[in-house]
Amino acid sequence: MRPGTYQHLAEEFERRRTELQAAGEITDPRDAQIERLKAEVSELKRRVTARDEKIVDLTGFKTLAISSLAAQHDEIERLRRRLAQHGNVRALPVAGAGQQPEGHG
Q1: d(CA 60, CA 56)
Q2: Average pLDDT, rounded, for the chain
Q3: What residue spans define the domains of the chain?
Q4: What whole-number distance in Å separates Cα of residue 5 and Cα of residue 11?
């Protein structure tokens, strides 16, 4: 203990704290810290799991988008080949910058 004028107060504080801890009313601050850290770890694990699930979803979306773009590209190429093979398909004029297509002016 500490020697000094307020020694009796320090002793009284220690005695009361020990009694309250023994009665379970005051917990060791280390126990509270352990519980807080466990809760924090649980929250971080939950967030990592949620993030992993989101990554899986986004990867699936990316795969689907790339497949869709590839299919669209193949269809455009097929139509271009068909246009080149058959002279009976007429290409539409492309409107220049600031111009309206015919009939829309």
Answers
A1: 6
A2: 84
A3: 29-85
A4: 12
